[in-house]
Amino acid sequence: TRAPCSEIILRQEVLKDGFHRDLLIKVKFGESIEDLQTCRLLIKQDIPAGLFVDPYELASLRERNITEAVMVSENFDIEAPNYLSKESEVLIHARQDSQCDDCFQAFLPVHYRYHRPHSHDGETSIVVNHPDLLMFCDQEFPILKCWAHSKVAAPCALENEDICQWNKMKYKSVYKNVTLQVPVGLTIHTSLVCSVTLFVTILCSTLILVAIFKYGHFSL
Known about the structure:
With about 220 residues, this protein is α+β, with helices and mostly antiparallel strands. Helix content is about 20%, strand content about 40%.
């Protein structure tokens, strides 16, 4: 009789401070991964409207072999504020962790979008949901029957458009969904901010014009 199936453990962490963060996803298998050497692990992560992933940054990271991730969503505007944006989707190829024999990890840079100012609270929350964990193996082995939940169509590899049937894996998450606190402006400061901005703009424009007429050389 085979022992009860071990669990897959997933851990989501957000690194760095400020408006530019790194989402780190670690996956630990409860079994030896000797059978998994022929398998690929793909993470499908939904990005909430309050965050964005820069596809040009992802392309640069792929070229430097830092991380392998691609945007799935089309017509994606990285400049749009939160209230004009919608959720997006990213596929990330997880790599084996050199410090853990039965672990994989994936890394994704994410950035805050601008949010509407609030009337009282100077912060708003963004919830990053748990990802889908997909696995594709060249051969079947018993433990897959424990972990596999259903079949999902996804690209066979990030660099081509061929579609394969991946196993959607069941896992246990160490934490609840990741929640990020984003600083936002206050509406009571609108008049002050507009006044100071207008004053500084007029002052700088005047100084530039004075410098042009004083030191500039004009010829008719």
